[in-house]
Amino acid sequence: NMAAFVNRSISMMSGDGPNIGHLLSFGNSNGNYDAGSSRANRKSPFSPLKIFVQGKKKINTIYHDMQVYVKETEGFIKGLSEKCDVSNLNDYQLLEGYNSKVSSIIDILSRDHMKVAFFGRTSNGKSTVINAMLHDKILPSGIGHTTNCFLKVEGCDDQEPYLTTEDSKERKNVKSVSQLGNALCEEKLGESSLVSIYWPKNKCTLLCDDVVLVDSPGIDVSPNLDEWIDKHCLDADVFVLVVNAESTLMVTEKNFFHKVSSRLSKPNIFILNNRWDASASEPEFLDDVRKQHMDRTADFLVNELKVCSKQQAEDRIFFVSAKEVLQARLQQQKGQPPHTGALAEGFQNRYFEFQDFERKFEECISKSALKTKFEQHTIGGKVICGDIYQVLDRIYEQCQKNKSDKKKEEIDLINKKENIDRQLMTITCEMKERICEMVEDVEQKVSNALSDEIRRLSDLVDEFSSPFHQDPIILNKYKCELNVYVEKGLGSNLRARLTSALALNMESTQQDMTYKMVQLIPEHMRHMSGVLPRREPFEVLYRLNCDNLCADFQEDIRFRFTLGITSLINRFLGRQGSKITVLGGRQAIPRSITPLTPLDESAPAAQEDWSTLSRLAVSSVASQGAMGGLVISGVLLKAIGWRIIFITAGFYACLYLYERLTWTNNAMERALKQQYVYHATKKLRMIVDLTSANCSHQVQQELTGTFARLCHIVDNVKHDIDKDIDNIQQTTHLLDEVAVNSRTFRNRASHFTNQLQLFHEQYLGPNLEDED
């Protein structure tokens, strides 16, 4: 009714819409019409269409920044597999998939626009409504022109209009409406085909705001309504049903929108009762007809389609004259006032209502397009950011955990190394003392054993058997063989006495040493061949070298009568410590000295002194000659008598004869062996200390070598620990870097989530329900 129209017009003038007051003025303060005023309103920053443009720009900026972020995050995740094990292949594949998804969304957003589809029966004025909204006669309309396919009108940045078809992207120039009509007639197109008309934005301000208008053939000329809906209606933000006000709402029109409502959830539908200027011829029926149309169309929207409430329906139904508005706006472009294009009385009300439709349409399509085009992308963007946040947060937490574990591992290794150092120092001191004790023990045992063997040297020499003769060649060979025999015999006896005990002590010490050192070595290294003790028993080498020791031995195997003057003198001198005279004589083996007791260095000098005395004595006796013998014989003869002298001389001669006859090769061999024993004993006692020191040195070298080998293995273990500590420190440093980077990327994910939330609150509503 008229009251509803007046209320709606008053609300429009009251400031509910942006900058509306000028709509009621058809002239300036001077009474002249300003042709640019209507176009200026289109460019007003308060236009609802600008909200969509701004929102589209905003969300495109967010997604372009997000694309850079996702690519950087993908590269970061990819690099983690080469650095440290804190991510898996699924993380990289997730980021790779999101990278492609964000690129697809950016591509979709760049093509997103506000789409309005016009439907109605043939010749109801759909093309005229579009032309009126565009303030220009763009689509062919009027007598002789019916739209036989879908026409999509959108803005372009080119200076000249052109059109393309579904089958070909070739641009076809269009310079005028008549040429466009002829071009459309020449094209043999199906009813569901789409022809895209690109009109310069500088010629039509509505197209500057990403609005796309789709004109359709009459819904009464084709039964393929389902195909139309699938191809051209599913992405429409607003549907405008243009009906003929001279008739009523037809079943065909209702059926079409029933199909649309079944495919879309509560589509935004505006109903334009066109050609309302015809009602001016019958003003008395105007209110009744208007109420009748309002009730029927409102009932269709509210009760049949159930797409809005009754109050909302009043703002979706309008009574206009598109042809009248188009003519008025064409007059405006020529500088004439709008009313010069009026077709009948009541033009001003119809014109205002058409402007009210445009304002409500702009508000609705902007709101609907923001919701349909951007809400899902906003939710999807939050899901993407949320998933990336979870991945990065898990990586960050894993880095922190790994870093904590590495720190503990580093501390354990440092403590382990310090413990090894302390134990190694203790074991080293203990082993040094142990080695020193064993070296001293070995030296004492070898010295005692060698001294004992020297004391029993005569038994060893007596056991020697080899052909003996005075011939110098045979004699030299005999002495060489005797040297070899004595050296082997002494060595064999020493080994028999010492080897077993020394081997047991060495093995015990080495096992104890190995056991203690092995405790410092990891389990997996304890069975290495270098760690295990030697399997063959240790054997000391006794280097006596009798050939060199007895090289200066000079035997004297000439016959010496026991009761001869020289022998008696030598025997007398022997009591003073001389062992054998220069002239030779068989003497007993002297008593042994205590082991390790230094030899008396004055003995050789004393021996030389007594040898000199003996030589002087013998020389003095020989110098007296026969005179001395006669004097002594005379004295003895006078003292004891001739008989005793002759008996004594006979006994003496018999003794001499006996000794001379028994001086055979065996006697000479025994004499040589006695002389050899004496000489060898003297020489061997000189090397007792040297030999024992040499043996103890062998033991020291063996034990020291074993300990050094074990220490080397422990040093290798310490070196491995140092390498492990270095690796852990490097890994910890790397984990620090990864943690910092993952936290930065994680915070950036939160930043994009906040941006999307702010976008939703600014353009879509205060609350956004997360859909995970």
What does this entry show, briefly?
The protein is an alpha/beta fold and 772 residues long. 63% of the residues lie in helices and 6% in strands. Among the domains are: 113-344, P-loop containing nucleotide triphosphate hydrolases (Rossmann fold); 441-624 and 637-698, no CATH class.
Properties at a glance:
772 residues, alpha/beta, 9-stranded mixed sheet, disordered N terminus, membrane
Strand arrangement, major sheet: 4-3-5-2-6-1-7-8-9
Question: What is the number of helices?
Answer: 20
Give the ordered list of helices and strands: HHHHEHEEEHEEHEHEHHEHHHHHHHHHH
Helix content: 55-70%
Radius of gyration: 66 Å
Give me the count of strands. Answer: 9
Low-confidence stretches: 1-43, 577-607, 621-625, 767-772
Question: Biggest β-sheet, characterized?
Answer: 9 strands, mixed
**What integer is the average pLDDT?**
77
Structural class: alpha/beta
Query: How far is the first residue's CA from the last residue's CA?
Result: 49 Å
Shape, principal axes of CA atoms: rod-shaped
